[in-house]
Write a structure and sequence with these properties.
By secondary structure, this protein is of the alpha+beta class. It has 9 helices and 14 strands. 29% of the residues lie in helices and 18% in strands. The strands form 3 sheets. The chain has an 8-stranded mixed sheet. A 4-stranded antiparallel sheet has the order 6-11-8-9, with no helix packed on it. Helix 2 links the parallel strand 1 and strand 2. The longest helix has 26 residues. Belongs to the iron/ascorbate-dependent oxidoreductase family.
């Protein structure tokens, strides 16, 4: 823990253009002092909605392996990657510029490519008829031997980390510790893992060019593992002008965790999702985002501990799948565009 804290304290030594670094709390999942973890997390969620998680149980060696395998995929020829183009279930490859997260300020889509991996659901399972459920698509085993097994293992282990964080979040909101463990929540989650590769373009916010446009995440929480390239920025004053953007320092082996829009709705804005973006500096960058979402049919409505006569619910109840489907539709290129090019 002391080593991790030293790395955080030294974050400002990492070179970045016009650097201003945000100071984030660090949650140690191996700590026996759960009340301290709850206090640190609650403070982080009230301040920025971002925090670090360390000692989470996934070894640095295995994380390095996952990054290495991710790079192997993105180094494949475009034609090979397009063989596993994302489908209507949001599984598979997303090309550069496929996603447009901030249409009001971006002139093009994001200068990144990605690969979606979800919870595996057999074709004959009734659940597979719903959006976001189904079978994953995988590169051919002879092209990337062992790739699928590595990614499936990481997906499974990251879900356990997300559940551990959700336990602390529940306690911070004065709920039972296992509140988010219910079958309709993280018991049977949508849980989407996304490998990401950012090109070496230099972003220019004044010209609407970004590695990833400004956005808040959609679900409960996001776990982000990243390489050592400084590019992620957050904005804690999204409703003010001018907006102030601060860099988040990457820490090897740690997850950067942020809360999503659904948790903002659940908590009645006590915890707020935070705008963030990726500003490229001319270096390639790799990251792995793990989006922990509840089940498709989960009803997201104001928690009983987050409302009162003086503070009534600010959002109407909404079905998780309905909300997610609309957000994905709003930000991703229509698949028919690729069908036209391939026909």
């Amino acid at each position: 823990m002391e080593k991790k804290q030293q790395e955080i304290d030294g974050a400002e030594e990492i070179p970045a253009p016009n650097q201003k670094f945000s100071v984030l709390n660090c949650i140690d999942l191996s700590s026996p002092d759960i009340q301290q973890s709850v206090s640190l997390l609650k403070q982080a969620c009230l301040d920025s909605g971002f925090f670090y998680v360390v000692n989470h149980g996934i070894s640095e060696e295995f994380m390095d392996q996952v990054f290495s395998e991710s790079k192997k995929f993105f180094e494949l020829p475009l034609g090979e990657k397009m063989k596993v183009l994302r489908n209507e279930k949001h599984r598979g490859y997303t090309p550069f510029l496929d996603e447009l997260l901030d249409p009001d300020n971006q002139v093009h889509g994001d200068y990144k490519e990605g690969y979606y991996i979800g919870v595996e659901v057999p074709e004959d399972d009734p659940q597979a008829e719903k959006p976001f459920y189904g079978q994953n698509v995988w590169p051919a085993a002879d092209v990337l031997p062992g790739w699928r097994q590595t990614m499936e293992r990481f997906h499974k282990e990251a879900l356990e980390v997300a559940r551990s964080v959700a336990r602390i979040i529940a306690l911070a909101l004065n709920l039972e510790a296992d509140f988010f463990y219910r079958p309709e929540m993280l018991g049977q989650p949508i849980a989407v893992m996304r490998l990401l590769h950012y090109g070496a373009q230099i972003s220019d916010p004044s010209k609407g060019i970004f590695g990833a446009g400004a956005h808040s995440d959609y679900g409960l929480i996001t776990l982000l593992a990243t390489d050592d390239v400084v590019a992620l920025q957050i904005c804690k004053n999204k409703d003010a002008q001018p907006q102030v953007w601060e860099y988040i320092a990457p820490i090897k082996g740690a997850f950067i965790v942020n809360i999503g829009d659904m948790l903002e709705r659940w908590s009645n804005c006590i915890f707020r999702s935070t705008l963030h973006r990726v500003v490229g500096n001319g270096q390639e960058r790799y990251s792995i985002a793990y989006f922990a979402e509840p089940s498709y049919d989960c009803l997201v409505e104001c928690l009983p501990t987050c409302k009162s006569e003086k503070n009534p619910p600010k959002f109407p109840p909404i079905i998780c799948g309905t909300y997610l489907s609309q957000r994905y539709k709003d930000t991703h290129t229509d698949l028919s565009v690729y069908n036209k090019h391939q026909s």
